[in-house]
Design goal:
The protein is α+β, with helices and mostly antiparallel strands. The protein folds into two domains: 249 residues, no CATH class; 146 residues, 2-Layer Sandwich (Alpha-Beta Plaits). Helix content is 73%, strand content 9%. It contains ten helices and seven strands. The strands form two sheets. The protein has a five-stranded mixed sheet with strand order 2-3-1-6-7, with helices on both faces. It has a two-stranded antiparallel ribbon with strand order 4-5. A hairpin with a 2-residue loop joins strand 4 and strand 5.
């Protein structure tokens, strides 16, 4: 009788253990599913955001291409105008869809809103000059029409192109920041998954029957988890490569390989309030004549050769930036003394003003610049710093060019 009672107790214990193990297993399965679903949502959301931003950016490139063809006199001017007018509603639709995706990283959303402001300004500026061009056409005065066309290139360089470039850079920055946040969430999901698996492994030692039953179930579950983990790891790798590519594009000039103005803001923005340093800006005088005479490919190669020389000779002394087409900025390192800076500025001018041979043609331009011994608190932000330096640079050009003026501390 006692043996029967013991057997019944043991059977009940096994049943209870089996039920407990089953409940625990079910809970862990639910946690794994929720963790996987969260990671999958992160991947899906990030992919959708990237597709929408890339699509909008591609449309803006198409607008820019239409505008460049119109400036070059290729195709029907009215056709280009109509095409550009039709693209912007599609761009706005993509931007609206981006905002409706759901979760956005705060900093990525801030960059996106900056990009959208630039795009709105870009569209407004194009509409403004479209209306002006339409008004000129209505006069039927060929001289006025030709004069407007002649000024269109300068309008593009000075007013339209900077807006297009800024909007593109802001959208790329938005994707880079969003991808970084997604990678962080992915890492958290992976950690959670490994913790859950560890709990499963610990539970599997309880009870012979429970271990056997749990082992059979866990084998199938582990195979599925491994397959999903491999898929997710592959997706994470692709996201990482895309993020790295976006970051490179966001902070570098594709033509010269130097860091751009966005990178300059990142590097010295926080130093303005607390540090002093030497900074200089240089610009080739009359560079536009090179493009007008020999073409843009020639001018691009000219800038690329100058950038390569500057990196070879001065990268150890300063961080070098290509902040606009033919404008280069040097932030001298803390180890470089004020006296050394003076000599380096002279050497930089000599390098930039040297003769360069492109396509068997030798070209040489003078260089104007501005230098600034920056003191902590002189400027509120990088933009105000560059405005101050560019004003002095323009004064040097007005004085005949080929000169270096110094920004005076106030």
């Amino acid at each position: 009788m006692a043996k029967q009672q013991k057997s019944e107790f043991r059977s009940i214990s096994y049943v209870i253990m089996g039920i407990v193990l089953a409940v625990i297993m079910l809970l862990n399965m639910a946690l794994l599913y929720l963790n996987y679903a969260s990671a999958n949502r992160t991947f899906s959301t990030t992919s959708k955001e990237m597709n929408l931003i890339n699509s909008a950016n591609g449309m803006l490139e198409q607008v820019n291409g239409e505008l460049m063809e119109m400036i070059a006199g290729v195709g029907s001017t009215q056709g280009h105008i109509n095409t550009m007018a039709g693209i912007f509603p599609a761009v706005q639709t993509k931007l609206d869809q981006y905002e409706q995706v759901g979760y956005h990283n705060e900093y990525a959303l801030r960059r996106f809103r900056h990009a959208r402001a630039y795009i709105d300004a870009y569209e407004k500026k194009l509409n403004e000059y479209r209306d002006r061009y339409t008004a000129v056409l209505m006069t039927n005065d060929q001289d006025q029409i030709d004069a407007f066309k002649d000024t269109l290139k300068n309008i593009y360089d000075q007013e339209i192109s900077p807006l297009q470039t800024a909007s593109s850079e802001m959208m790329v920055a938005s994707i880079a920041i969003g991808s970084a946040a997604a990678s962080k969430r992915t890492a958290e999901s992976n950690r959670n998954m490994y913790m859950i698996l560890a709990v499963l492994a610990a539970i599997l030692i309880i009870g012979e029957i429970a271990i056997f039953l749990a082992a059979r179930y866990n084998k199938r579950a582990s195979e599925e988890i491994s397959r999903k983990s491999a898929q997710f790891a592959d997706a994470s790798s692709k996201l990482m490569r895309s993020r790295e590519k976006m970051e490179d594009i966001a902070v570098s000039n594709i033509l010269t390989g130097l860091k751009n103005r966005y990178a300059l803001e990142q590097d010295i923005g926080e130093r303005l309030a607390t540090e002093q340093f030497n900074i200089a800006v240089f610009d080739l005088d009359n560079f536009r004549s090179i493009n007008d005479t020999y073409g843009y490919d020639f001018g691009d190669e000219y800038l690329a050769q100058i950038a390569e020389r500057l990196k070879e000779e001065f990268e150890q002394f300063a961080d070098i930036y290509n902040i606009t087409g033919n404008e280069f900025c040097f932030v001298f390192k803390r180890t470089v003394s004020d006296t050394q800076v003076i000599r380096l500025v002279e050497n930089i001018v000599n390098v930039m003003a040297s003769p360069y041979t492109i396509l068997n043609l030798t070209v040489q331009l003078t260089v104007s610049g501005s230098t600034y011994h920056y003191l902590a608190g002189d400027c509120l932000n990088v933009n105000s710093l560059l405005v101050k330096m560019d004003n002095v640079l323009r004064n040097a050009k007005r004085a005949g060019g080929g000169q270096i003026f110094q920004v005076m501390n106030i």
